[in-house]
Write a structure and sequence with these properties.
The chain is of the alpha/beta class. It has 25 helices and 27 strands. The protein folds into four domains: 119 residues, no CATH class; 302 residues, no CATH class; 191 residues, 2-Layer Sandwich (Alpha-Beta Plaits), CATH 3.30.70; 61 residues. Helices cover 45% and strands 21% of the residues. A hairpin with a 2-residue loop joins strand 20 and strand 21. The protein starts with a helix and ends with a strand. 38% of the residues are buried.
Length: 744
């Protein structure tokens, strides 16, 4: 039976492949599965920590405006922040002239004017003789402009390569400061270039930015979980693009010209920038021009010196000589702390330091343009492997395959980072692998092992034995879980059963009802492969189309209804011999979308059907008494029948439904019905049409003619009486031809 492996396990494999498709859709970015982005972020952080050098990099030194620097002068500090610009000018001069640093970059935004000057200091010291000097007073505005501390800082910026910082935000642009010159990426020829975009900024004073060697923004990027993993190397504002501080530092150090771009096809949004070329160095970026920061380890992976120690010459010159200096802040109230993959409290200035050293070393993590294709391919391969293993191998072998696949995936992911700095997505393939393994193992242990026994126990009382056998051969294809399906439901009830029971002893009544229910059940279950739902006193409820799908459910149900009427006739011959009352049964059928499955309460449950279509079927059974017919079917059932002669009985509006529905009486297979029955049905259709048009005289005459031909037909008598009545009591102007029933 090995050749039938797929057919026997088709349901199981459809679910498994559906799971693969679910994860593949996430990998293809068609939808997002909850938790997977968070898992991907955690796996990324684990890899960053695993490959971090965890060593001190002395090429970059942090000149820190720390608590010591903010102490009062008598305590060795420089006073509270913000400092006057002459103090910053002195700091820059010290770094270049005394310590011979190679470059200074500010992780501080200097966007506000400092209008103080040396003359202001003199005035504050009480040099009234200067203020009383007419010539001095006349020259005071020009001297103040000439000697402003912003000018002093601007002059100091020319003593060496200095890169200033500015920031973007979502508010209004700064009024006193401007942005440096941005650049237009149109020469790259890539069409739409996507990047982080901000409407507002805190820029630089014009007199400062014109004298600095470069400038870069200070905006790291926080992911949805609040962790900083990336820096936007370029930020868009008003159609122009501006570099990050680290990129601006690299441009100054390499003396490079305009940025160049290396493009690649990412298979999702067309061609995108994959790398920026700066001074011959390739800088990998994602599709939004962000760079993954290669963190060296926890905080203080770079040397720190106090700014006040630099101003007072207390730092050994060899500690700063030929170093790149980043001026930042760590004092309380000024500290810029972020969460990174390596630390929950990480100085923001070190994010720039890590990026700068990563740029210089060409040690930047890369999420290449083909990463999504790798993620999708890996998901499909691992998913397919587990589908195969879960269906063909023993559980112990499946476990070995799972562990081997897990180890290989993790090893490949770590190897890509260690050897090529490639950050390939891992969460989706691993999650697909794990979910399919758990599904396969759970299915093997909890479904297949007990499926056959459970199938027989669950459905033996509902469906024919041959269907139970068929279901047990492939138990995964059948379930008692509620589902929506198109079915046909049947209700059969004994008319005037109360009166019958009053004429029989309890023993005779029990024998009669047992014989009746047995005969009806055999027709439903054994004769026409229906599913017995329940007995409701003397009523029988059954349905077709579940648990085993049946495309002919309406056809089989109507055949069963006709056969049940014949079986009732045979029973009456037996009952007559026992002097028991005659049984008359009414049967109602309806088709439509129904909820089928194991439903009920915590105390008792049953495999049953529910829904509006079921309720209408029950109403039709009750209407058989009104219209004097043995079987009534809904319009949906009539539409599913092929080769049947059906007579429309009426248009009714039953209790619980606002819309009127057409009801029909199945007369038999069209080819088996006599020509007289066909003619009788045609005459009935003419009479009913006249009735609907409110042509009461014509309708009454036609109904009377039919009634005379069959005096015992209750249907003809009902409509001839109605037509006569409506001649005397006309219908309302909005009458739609429907008969209203307000009782069940």
């Amino acid at each position: 039976m090995r050749q039938h492996w797929w057919r026997r396990n088709s349901g199981r494999h459809l679910v498994a492949w559906a799971l693969v498709g679910l994860f593949a859709g996430h990998a293809a970015a068609w939808w997002t599965l909850p938790l997977l982005p968070r898992v991907e972020a955690l796996l990324y952080d684990l890899r960053v920590r695993a490959v971090a050098p965890r060593s001190l990099d002395e090429r970059v030194v942090i000149v820190d405006i720390d608590e010591k620097s903010l102490q009062e002068k008598e305590l060795g500090g420089e006073g509270r922040w913000p400092w006057r610009r002459d103090r910053l000018a002195q700091l820059v001069d010290k770094l270049f002239q005394d310590y011979r640093v190679s470059l200074v970059a500010f992780d501080i935004v200097l966007s506000e004017k400092d209008d103080s000057s040396g003359l202001d200091i003199l005035e504050q010291l009480g040099r009234n003789e200067l203020r009383n000097n007419a010539a001095f007073v006349a020259e005071l505005p020009q001297l103040r402009r000439r000697l402003s501390f912003d000018d002093l800082l601007g002059q100091s910026l020319q003593s060496g390569p200095v890169v200033l910082g500015y920031a973007f935000h979502n508010g209004m642009p700064s009024k006193s400061a401007t942005l440096p010159n941005g650049f237009d990426p149109k020469p790259w020829g890539l069409g739409d270039v996507r990047a982080q975009s901000f409407p507002g900024y805190a820029g630089l004073l014009p007199k400062l930015q014109g004298r600095a060697a470069g400038a870069g923004h200070l905006n790291p990027l926080r992911d949805d979980d609040g962790v900083t993993r990336r820096v936007p190397l370029l930020v868009e504002h008003s159609g122009l693009y501006y570099p990050a501080l680290g990129l601006a530092v690299l441009q100054v150090l390499t003396g490079s010209g305009p940025l160049e771009a290396m493009a690649a096809d990412d298979g999702q949004s067309g061609r995108r920038v994959e790398k920026l070329i700066v001074g011959g160095l390739a800088v990998p970026v994602d599709r939004a021009l962000n760079a993954l920061v290669p963190f060296r380890g926890a905080a203080h992976s770079f040397p720190y010196v106090s700014a006040s120690d630099v101003l007072h010459g207390r730092v050994p010159k060899e500690q700063l000589s030929q170093r790149i200096v980043l001026v930042g802040t760590s004092a309380a109230g000024l500290a810029d702390l972020v969460t990174t993959p390596t630390s929950v409290s990480f100085p923001g200035v070190e994010v720039h330091a890590n990026l700068i050293t990563g740029l210089l070393d060409q040690r930047l993590f890369q999420a290449p343009a083909y990463a999504q294709a790798v993620e999708l391919l890996g998901t499909m391969m691992l998913g397919g492997l587990m589908v195969f293993a879960g269906g063909r191998l023993k559980p112990s072998y499946t476990l070995v395959v799972f562990l081997a696949a897990l180890l290989a995936t993790v090893s490949l992911g770590m190897g890509a980072v260690l050897t090529q700095q490639l950050m390939l997505p891992m969460s989706t393939p691993l999650a697909c692998l794990l979910v399919l393994f758990l599904y396969g193992m759970g299915y093997g242990y909890f479904v297949e092992a007990r499926g056959r026994r459970q199938m027989s126990a669950l459905f033996a009382n509902y469906v024919p034995p041959e269907l139970v056998t068929k279901m047990a051969e492939n138990p995964e294809a059948f379930t008692m879980a509620p589902m929506e399906r198109e079915l046909t439901v049947l209700f059969a009830d004994v008319r005037n059963f109360t009166a019958i029971s009053e004429h029989l002893s309890p023993e005779a009544l029990a024998e009669l009802i047992n014989a009746y229910l047995t005969a009806m059940s055999e027709v439903v279950r054994d004769g026409y492969r229906g599913t017995l739902d329940k007995y409701i006193g003397d009523a029988v409820m059954a349905f077709w189309g579940a648990p085993v799908p049946n495309a002919q459910h309406a056809q089989d149900a109507v055949h069963a209804a006709i056969a049940m009427q014949r079986a009732a006739g045979k029973l009456n011959l037996e009952f007559q011999a026992k002097a028991w009352p005659e049984l008359r049964i009414g049967i109602g059928l309806n088709s439509g979308s129904m909820r089928v499955g194991d439903m009920g309460s915590k105390i008792r449950r049953a495999y049953t059907v529910m829904g509006d279509a079921v309720n209408l079927g029950a109403r039709l059974e009750g209407l058989t008494k009104v219209y004097g017919v043995d079987v009534l079917i809904g319009e949906a059932t009539r539409d599913l029948l092929r080769g049947w002669l059906c007579r429309e009985v009426d248009l009714v509006r039953v209790k619980g439904k606002d819309d009127a529905v057409r009801i029909f009486e199945p007369l038999g297979l069209a080819l088996e019905c006599s020509s007289e029955l066909h003619q009788e049905k045609a005459q009935w259709d003419l009479a009913l049409a006249a009735y609907r048009r409110q042509q009461w005289l014509v309708a009454h005459a036609l109904f009377v003619k039919l009634r005379l031909s069959k005096p015992d037909c209750a249907l003809y008598a009902l409509f001839s009486d109605r037509a006569a009545e409506y001649q005397l009591t006309p219908r309302p102007s909005d009458w739609d031809g429907a008969t209203q029933f307000d009782r069940k």
